[in-house]
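Here is the promised in-class demo. Please do not try to memorize the tokens; focus on the logic of going from shape to residues.
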């Protein structure tokens, strides 16, 4: 154990955040899956044990990835990006359907399903970090600098949007922020935002006109968010949001206490999309505020890694992956407290899951790999300075 701990490198605060979120996940999943376990005729601790196995595997993935020199991901990024394109196309037409959208691929033999959008998110940020680092000298030029980083974003977001619009929009927003950090001209970023908005509108109109895709689902969710469906035959269409509000209101300042949720018996998917509402009910506003602070702490430490890294690729890699993870967490929380319409985004490292946790673990491992390299480089510089003084 002592030797294993000595091999753990990188930012210790980020490691602490991972452990803290994993512990909270076990408590929240155990509480939120009580009704699910009863319906599926499982023991009360079945899903907690399953989640424990997933989290242990995730921490193992972080450890393995953070031991890899992050510069190797630069060579791997192009191949991964090219592989993701046919995978997204296959998912769009032949993937496992969920709520009228094809988001999942089931691997044969092992019967493991995963969202190709999770893999594509990793691929696009690795590829963008590579492109931004290479194009820094001409990044202000539209043809030579901006187009080579714009086209990959449009391709990935365009393939994700028909089945998973919320993920595509979140990905596009994070890419815009990464472009701003990477010194892309602001007018070019505004152009990307305009093209993205036009694309969403066109996708919606085509979906509604032809009666295919998820246009009707998006329209219904917006109407539910605006409260327009509460007086007609779809009176229970706001059921998820209503139950989440009840859970939040009953939590108060300090909450009911661990394992004492009532809403878990009524709220759909309390262990995934709406786990934050369960956390507020059991741990109150204080617990929710601490959880938000933990995610923001992770983002702050990643920004420090970005500022300390002397090489553009590692800096862009760390900040891009951290932004998308934290933004997903904040978006999930916003859905739970009814600030935005319902989406299918989970709470990273907390919601019950498998492949999604493992893909997030790869992202965190890459960030820690960059941190490890920066720490080793600074340690070498200090040693040289001491030798010179001696």
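The designed amino acids, position by position:
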């Amino acid at each position: 154990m002592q030797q294993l701990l000595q091999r753990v490198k990188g930012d210790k605060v980020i490691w602490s955040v991972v452990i803290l979120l994993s512990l909270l996940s076990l408590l929240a999943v155990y509480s939120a899956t009580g009704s699910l376990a009863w319906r599926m005729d499982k023991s009360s601790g079945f899903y907690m044990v399953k989640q424990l196995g997933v989290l242990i595997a995730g921490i193992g993935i972080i450890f393995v990835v953070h031991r890899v020199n992050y510069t190797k991901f630069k060579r791997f990024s192009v191949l991964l990006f090219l592989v993701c394109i046919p995978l997204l196309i296959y998912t769009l037409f032949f993937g496992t359907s969920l709520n009228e959208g094809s988001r999942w691929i089931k691997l044969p033999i092992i019967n493991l399903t995963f969202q190709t959008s999770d893999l594509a998110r990793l691929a696009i940020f690795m590829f963008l970090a590579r492109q931004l680092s290479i194009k820094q000298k001409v990044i202000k030029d539209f043809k030579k600098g901006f187009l080579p980083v714009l086209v990959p974003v449009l391709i990935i977001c365009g393939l994700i949007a028909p089945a998973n619009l919320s993920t595509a929009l979140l990905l596009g927003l994070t890419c815009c922020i990464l472009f701003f950090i990477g010194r892309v001209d602001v007018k070019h970023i505004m152009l990307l935002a305009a093209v993205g908005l036009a694309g969403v509108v066109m996708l919606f109109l085509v979906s509604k006109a032809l009666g295919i895709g998820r246009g009707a689902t998006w329209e219904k969710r917006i109407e539910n968010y605006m409260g327009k469906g509460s007086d007609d035959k779809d009176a229970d269409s706001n059921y998820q949001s209503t139950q989440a509000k009840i859970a939040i209101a009953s939590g108060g300042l300090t909450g009911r206490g661990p394992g004492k949720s009532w809403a878990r018996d009524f709220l759909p998917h309390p262990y995934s999309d709406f786990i934050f509402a369960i956390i507020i009910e059991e741990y109150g506003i204080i617990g929710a505020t601490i959880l938000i602070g933990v995610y923001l702490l992770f983002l702050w430490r990643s920004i420090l890694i970005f500022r300390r890294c002397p090489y553009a690729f590692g800096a862009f890699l760390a900040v891009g992956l951290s932004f998308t993870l934290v933004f997903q967490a904040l978006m999930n929380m916003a859905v739970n407290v009814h600030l935005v319409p319902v989406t299918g985004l989970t709470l990273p490292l907390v919601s019950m899951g498998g492949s999604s946790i493992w893909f997030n673990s790869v992202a965190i491992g890459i960030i820690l790999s960059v941190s490890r390299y920066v720490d080793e480089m600074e340690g070498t510089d200090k040693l040289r300075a001491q030798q010179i003084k001696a």
